[in-house]
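re: that complex we talked abt at group meeting.

here r the seqs, copy pasted straight from the sheet so there may be weird spacing, ignore it
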Amino acid sequence: MRNAFANCLTELAKSDTSLMLFYADIGNRLFNNLKEIAPDRTINAGIAEANMASMAAGSAMMGQKPFIYTITPFTTARNFEQIKIDIAYQNQPVIIVGTGSGLSYANLGPTHHSFEDIALMRSLPNMNIVCPADSDELSVLMPQLIKLNQPCYFRIGKKNEPKVHKILPNLKFGHAYTMQEGQTVAILATGTIMPLAHDLLIELQSKGINAELVSFHTVKPLDTQYLALACERFEHIITLEEHNVNGGFGSAVLEYISEQPKTPRVHRFGIPDRFIDQVHSTEDARKKAGLTVLDIITTLKNRAVI
Amino acid sequence: MNLEQIAAKIRYTLCDVSSKTKTPHLGSSLSCTDILTALYWQVLNVEPSTPSMPSRDYFLLGKGHAASALYTTLAYRGFYPVADLYQHGQTDSVFEEHPGINSPKGVDTVSGSLGHALSLATGMALTCKIQKRTNRFYVLMGDGELNEGTIWEAAMFAAGKQLSNLVAIIDFNKLQGTGESCEIMHLEPLEEKWRAFGWHTIRLDGHNISAITDALMDAQSYDKPVCIIADTIKGKGISFMENDNNWHYRIPTQDEVEKAKQELGLK
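got the structure back, here u go
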């Protein structure tokens, strides 16, 4: 997905001179093409993410539309207060890109995991949050984020994420995208966990449950229009994310649904409230976190959902 | 009215507004009054009638708790009436205790959390270089503010990019919130520190308006960012406030305001 980001930005920056990139000394060679077409707008900010966030806000105040880019914890948590004041409060159109989000860099340990970033960004007024599931979702949504001209958090993966759509999806910022219509049970997933959501759909189908599968690429603003209807249509809503079950996408869904007149049960699946360490791969880490089809089915059985 | 007299009027108004609106940080505001006077009367390309003029210079207040010093300077410079200052800190006032997004004309950025302004200005200065614009950027920071790590991140970056359109001014009054700045952290030798970070460095008396003006004009002739270390006195101009850190938070009584007025040579 990071290659798709670099390619997309390079393409857009050719005609839009307001676009510029600050990156915190990562992505060796990733931005070579961008550097070629816009050398003065491709800025290595050094390993100084807090300064990078404020500089981007300053750049936006002078009329640019900057991106800041590094590994997720360093571009969301390390510099959170700069994002809060300089970007969100001042309402500057900076796009904060967290690459390798969730468990993408599982083997690098908790320093490089990000299970708190959605929670942090959700708590900021003016902030929009978009989590593409694959490179197609990224390339469809990115021009829309630029057009938005507002603070944005763009939570992306690492590389070689499996494609989740057969054709380029017609995604619209702020609108959930239904990949498979169904009844009784809806699976709402955001970001790179989508293939697991798809596997879960297949498993439920094999048990005779025609579940609905939805890509909730936009976490904030939450598509409450979809959710309001979902409250009428479903008995169970399953949320899936590679993020702490507390404070993330599932929490956002639960908060909304809990205040509706008809409330389906909400089952949140994500990272349990603990650090995940001593793992060698994303798959390994997901197993430790209980983020497998088998674990989810077991929980759903225990809760008498299926 | 000469610049020293303007500064005296600003100091008196700071005391009176603080007393009447019960807003603190008088000591911090008094220490940077002469610096702001030099900037706004002698150096900055700003027009009170067109505060958003695209070619203007930008002033960023790093030490946001000295907001009243900035608000009062702008009032005397003609951005809005001095009488408006008495709304400071009141409900729905644009004069918030720390400058917010609804700040009055002439205030360009939010401030209050220390260590942001130099980074913001660095991004602005870099962008103007890319856009081939001639605006200049001036940042006023407290010595306590230099405790923040982001200052040094920005300092390294700005020097690395040779941002000659950027000037940092340190209001070095030797006192921060709860103690002596040089005891709380190892600040000195401050000139050598900024020089080592790649900045052209000037040290001067932060209450000598003509010396500050000369240095700020001279700052335009280097091919790198410039740091002016201004030795100042917290509470400057009012004997019973000078170097007394209680005035970081204390509010003067009206009797004290009258005494200050006399000391400042105002009728």
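couple things i noticed - Chain B has one domain: 3-263. Residues 27 and 235 of chain B are 4 Å apart (CA to CA).
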